[in-house]
Every structure is written in structure tokens, then in C-alpha cells.
Design a protein that fits this description.
Layout: H1 15-34, E1 39-40, E2 50-54, E3 80-81, E4 89-94, E5 97-102, E6 107-112, E7 119-131, E8 141-148, E9 162-168, E10 175-178, E11 180-188, E12 193-195, E13 200-204, E14 213-214, E15 228-235, E16 238-243, E17 246-256, E18 263-264, E19 269-275, E20 277-288
Antiparallel strand pairs: 1-20, 2-3, 2-6, 4-5, 5-20, 6-19, 7-15, 7-20, 8-9, 8-19, 9-10, 10-14, 11-12, 11-13, 11-17, 15-16, 16-17, 17-18
């Protein structure tokens, strides 16, 4: 009964009803916590919440304002962090809404200022028309890097230490481990290591004979001109690559290699690459998770 002033007389209540009510309240509270709201990583107006980094020297045939050249025309410095004289990363409108335009001119990333651990990341990507420099005769290429834990320029003198969800024509969802290590069940198909849920647990990192690349197991990419929907799940150092609703790879036990001994890699920043090919991103968002979403869980 109500004793006035909002105080509840628990002693007068039926104990079984009180216990049932408590359990229901707990379950409701738990379900609310388990389904966190989506948070936009792209606000549709500008690139707030992102840093840009380009550490590879620009092509000598380009005119890059503000960069020093040698007498032979070769650039003596990279564009660096948070200056973008070539307007590689910009915001525009396409297909009725705001998008991130990545021109592809040069090699580098736009990287979140925030760090993420157990999350569901969603992005949509569409190819543009232009290619640059050494990528002129190659497939369109970009990438979603996660668990980023260094500045750019550490891996191949270009990229941050990270795990890559590859976005490349015919390689959607592939793995590239950039100065880090991760385990994937895989088999050798005669040309490449390929994800196979029944395969042998294989460590991928930047060292022969295996290397840092593992190919997806199913081609779920849409034709050029259409938007591709990508989902990345990271949970307790494991990850799942999903292309247009299809799981194309499961990865386990990410490790960082920047210490005396390998260490668990469970958190980091998120990056989108510029890698010689024009592309567009939209609906870039993240959701914190307390377990792997049911639609992507192993059965």
C-alpha cells in the first residue's frame, strides 16, 4: 500500500508478486541496455569526428599546394594530418541525400577520433568513375579499417596498424591484416588463402609464407553503379564481415604486434581509405553491442 510521500510498504505486498515484478523490471532494463541506439558517424554536413591522414608522397605529376618539391620534381613531404589541399575527402549530395566523396587521389584515410570496442558498424559504398596514378589500370579500391591503433604510415609506410575489411572490385569482404595479426579458418585454393568455416585456423599477418591476405568465400558484391551495404561486427577481438546481408568471413583473436609480445586487440578507431579509386560513402553509423547480433551469430 502507499504510505504517502511515494514510499511503498513492501512488507504488506504478496512476496511472490513482488518477486515477479522485480524480475520483469530487470528483464525490461536488460533488453533496453542490450539494444543500444545507432549513432551516426557521418552527420551529413561535414567531417566532424574524423581526422584525415595521408602519409605517402604524392605523385610528382600532381600539383599539391603547399608541399615542397626537390629539384627533380619529387615531393619531399607527405600531405600529413588534417590538411587536405587536394580535397580528397569532401561532402556532397547523391541519390537524394548527403554522402562522403572520396576522390581516390592519393593514399590515406579518414579516421574517427573515437575508439570503438564491441560494435556493429554499417556503411554503404558506391564506386565513382575516376582512378589515379598506379591504380589507373587496376580495380576500384578502398577499404574499411577497424581496430586502428596507430597513426598512418606504420603499415607499408601508408596505413595505420589495423584490420582491413577490404572493399575492392571482386574482393569485397576480404581480409588484409595491416601490421597486426588475426586468425581465420581457411584453405589454400591453389591461388589464394580463402575463408572456409571448416578450414584450418590460420594466422594472417605481414610475413611469409602465408602473408596478411585472406579472400572471402562468396561474391556478394553488386554491379558498379549500385550501392553496396556493408556490416562489420567486432566483439571481444573477433569480427564478422558482411556484404549485402551475406556473411563472407568470420575472424578470430585479433592481436596487436607493436609490443615485445603479441597482445589482444579488442578496440581501436575506424577508418575509410582513399586508395587510388573514386568512391562514395553514406549511412555511416555504429551501434554498441553486448553480444553478436542474432542474424550474424554462428549456429
Amino acid at each position: 500500500m502507499d504510505l504517502g510521500g511515494g514510499v511503498l510498504d513492501i512488507g504488506s505486498m504478496n512476496p511472490r508478486k513482488f518477486l515477479l515484478g522485480s524480475v520483469l523490471c530487470f528483464l525490461v532494463a536488460f533488453s533496453v541496455r542490450a539494444e543500444e541506439p545507432w549513432k551516426a558517424l557521418f552527420n551529413g554536413r561535414d567531417l566532424s569526428g574524423w581526422d584525415t591522414e595521408m602519409m605517402e608522397l604524392p605523385d610528382r605529376t600532381w600539383e599539391v599546394p603547399g608541399l615542397a618539391r626537390g629539384t627533380n620534381g619529387v615531393y619531399l613531404e607527405a600531405v600529413g594530418k588534417n590538411r587536405d589541399p587536394l580535397h580528397v575527402f569532401t561532402v556532397t549530395n547523391m541519390d537524394g541525400g548527403p554522402v562522403i566523396h572520396v576522390s581516390g587521389q592519393g593514399f590515406g584515410v579518414m579516421m574517427t577520433t573515437g575508439i570503438f570496442t564491441n560494435v556493429h558498424v554499417h556503411v554503404e559504398v558506391k564506386w565513382g568513375d575516376r582512378k589515379w596514378s598506379k591504380k589507373l589500370n587496376r580495380p576500384f579500391d578502398t577499404g574499411l579499417l577497424y581496430f586502428c591503433h596507430s597513426e598512418c604510415g606504420t603499415a607499408d609506410k601508408t596505413w595505420p596498424r589495423s584490420i582491413e575489411f577490404q572493399i575492392n572490385q571482386k574482393e569485397f569482404g576480404d581480409l588484409y591484416a595491416a601490421a597486426s595479426r588475426i586468425t581465420v579458418p581457411a584453405r589454400w585454393d591453389g591461388k589464394v588463402w580463402r575463408y572456409d568455416a571448416a578450414g584450418t585456423n590460420t594466422d594472417f599477418f605481414m610475413q611469409k609464407p602465408i602473408g596478411n591476405h585472406c579472400a572471402h568465400n562468396v561474391d556478394a558484391e553488386k554491379p558498379k553503379g549500385e550501392w553496396n551495404s556493408l556490416d562489420l561486427i567486432t566483439y571481444q577481438g573477433n569480427s564478422i564481415h558482411v556484404v549485402n546481408g551475406q556473411v563472407v568471413m568470420r575472424l578470430y583473436h585479433a592481436q596487436r604486434l607493436d609490443g615485445d609480445v603479441p597482445a589482444p586487440l579488442t578496440a581501436g578507431k575506424i577508418s575509410l581509405q582513399t586508395e587510388g579509386g573514386e568512391c562514395y560513402y553514406r549511412n555511416v553509423k555504429v551501434q554498441e553491442i553486448s553480444e553478436v547480433p542474432a542474424e550474424f551469430a554462428e549456429h
